[in-house]
Write a structure and sequence with these properties.
There is one protein chain. By secondary structure, the chain is mainly α. It has two domains: 89 residues; 62 residues, Ribosomal Protein S8, Chain: A, domain 1 (2-Layer Sandwich). It contains seven helices and three strands, in the order H-H-H-H-E-H-H-E-E-H. Strand 2 and strand 3 form a beta hairpin. The longest helix is centred in the middle third of the chain and has 26 residues. The protein is elongated and about 70 Å long.
Length: 176
């Protein structure tokens, strides 16, 4: 299979269509689809793990066979052939690109948590500098209009919670 996530999506659509038409889908088929989709997502994060991709493919092939059998038995060969063509199309798609995981940011000490906030939004709020110092956070304005905020995880999340709450209050006050 070229694109396990696309295949899983088409199989989900087939399950929904079959259910809408009154067909009964066994629980083990739905469970296999969930497993296949989960493994396909894991495969994006670990593109070098061939075993995960093979397990995802095997689970989705099992679901495909079961659903197409149900479709043909309940609604005829033409209906099943139409869905088979859709599924085959996903097999021919290029594989999903590996998910990029950004873990390193220049200038942020290893182990620090970080967030980028649009500078104009951040500094429009009152007392931001004071909150940053209270949470022992470091900031650095970047050339693209964002500010990099970093420090201990609990400090970053606490700061973000306060900023979000202040922003909500501002929206309420403005009637948005």
């Amino acid at each position: 299979m070229g694109n396990n996530l696309s295949t899983a999506k088409v199989l989900e659509d087939l399950i929904l269509d079959l259910r809408d038409k009154g067909a009964d889908i066994p629980g083990h088929v739905v469970d296999s689809l969930k497993s296949g989709r989960t493994l396909a997502n894991i495969g994006l994060r670990s593109p070098d793990d061939v075993e995960v991709a093979m397990k995802a493919q095997a689970a989705l092939e099992s679901v495909e066979m079961n659903l197409l059998s149900i479709a043909e038995a309940a609604f005829g060969g033409e209906y099943a052939d139409g869905w088979q063509r859709k599924i085959t199309q996903t097999h021919q798609e290029a594989p999903e690109p590996a998910a990029k995981k950004l873990t390193f940011v220049a200038g942020v000490p290893k182990g620090d948590h970080w967030v980028r906030i649009e500078t104009k939004d951040l500094f429009e709020m009152e007392g931001v500098e004071q909150r940053l110092s209270e949470h022992s956070l470091t900031i650095r304005k970047q050339d693209d209009g964002f500010t990099l905020v970093h420090g201990k995880k609990e400090d970053v999340t606490g700061f973000l919670s306060e900023i979000r709450e202040e922003y909500r209050q501002k929206l309420k006050k403005d009637g948005v």
